[in-house]
Amino acid sequence: MNRFVSNITLRLDSKGRVSIPASFRTVLGRDGFDGLYCYPALDRPAIDAGGNALMSEIEALIGRFTPFSEEREQFALALYGTSETLKVDGEGRVVLSDTLKRHAGITDAVSFVGLGHKFQIWEPGRFHSELAEATQKVRALKSELSSQVAARNAQGARE
Amino acid sequence: MNRFVSNITLRLDSKGRVSIPASFRTVLGRDGFDGLYCYPALDRPAIDAGGNALMSEIEALIGRFTPFSEEREQFALALYGTSETLKVDGEGRVVLSDTLKRHAGITDAVSFVGLGHKFQIWEPGRFHSELAEATQKVRALKSELSSQVAARNAQGARE
DNA sequence: CGCCTTTCCATTGACGCCCATAATTTCCCA
DNA sequence: TGGGAAATTATGGGCGTCAATGGAAAGGCG
């Protein structure tokens, strides 16, 4: 498997360390990045995390702007400037910085949530309510889609 | 890691010395430049800093203009003319010149901010407000992008 | 000869690295 | 297919090293 999937909740120990779930570690291992690339998610109280795949995404975004342009400097500041590469110890654990923890409201436990090419780290309570909300939206969207398909089929459309 | 990422705030001591963050030092070490290449950022109260990678970028920028052209002379003056190479002591510290400190409004503490191939040195307060502003811009662009994609999908475009 | 800068050493607190343990989970074989 | 052994995971703690910082000694320049 080379995608991050499923969600696992784990506790921080007295030193603030937390194990990266084993399934995520194998994906990271395949990716080849040394450490864990992290930054505060732009529009939600969570941490985006991953390896080279995630960093290249950021790099590509910034690379679109011309050097020394106003936009490029601002994007680099907001993206690279808030990124961190956390060290992973021999047991597969990381220590989240205070900045990251504050952004996500993390205290003593976290939920790792797979998002394909990257994953997010949430405060478990916030994750569950966010998940409930997202599930509602997806349900609504799904029923909307199926009714559209039903309508297309009813009028004889084929593909 | 061969990129400058994250931000670290450190204090100047009584002699005006300040440690370059260890993570930045390793990137500089890999870059191979002896010392720290610095100049006042062109359009903001910050100091641009880096090694060979930064110098080549400037060289490339100036090289785009035709020799002896007015623009070339001006760029060369603004960039090369204001550049300094700071000495790094045995403990990885530098002393910022008064010119640089005045340009950035630095007094007793600085924030080192990674921008990928280079990093910037800010007065911590100014950095935080600049970061807030830049983050807003990135958020705006992100939502703009996602709504464009939504629109494309809605009108049936495929790729 | 004094001042300023550079180089060297000291402290302390944090962090990286190592080993130990317990609870799973996986695997194997009867 | 069930039971048990082995490997893996999550977690706890100890200890040495390094980073950040402060200060003193040494060297150069006016």
Question: What's a concise summary of this model?
Answer:
The structure is a homodimer of 159-residue chains. Chain A has 5 helices and 8 strands; from the N terminus they run E-E-H-E-E-H-H-E-E-H-E-E-H. Chain A has helices at residues 22-31, 52-63, 70-79, 98-104, 124-154, and strands at residues 7-11, 17-19, 36-40, 47-50, 84-86, 93-95, 109-114, 119-122.
Descriptive overview:
The structure is a homodimer of 159-residue chains. Chain A is α+β, with helices and mostly antiparallel strands. The first copy, chain A, has five helices and eight strands, in the order E-E-H-E-E-H-H-E-E-H-E-E-H. Chain A has helices at 22-31, 52-63, 70-79, 98-104, 124-154; strands at 7-11, 17-19, 36-40, 47-50, 84-86, 93-95, 109-114, 119-122. In chain A, the strands form two sheets. The first copy, chain A, has a six-stranded antiparallel beta sheet. Chain A has a two-stranded antiparallel ribbon with strand order 2-6. The longest helix of chain A is centred in the last third of the chain and has 31 residues, at 124-154. The two termini of chain A are 31 Å apart. The model of chain A has no long low-confidence stretch (mean pLDDT 92). At the A-B interface, helix 2 and helix 3 of A face helix 2 and helix 5 of B. The structure holds a DNA duplex (30 and 30 nucleotides).
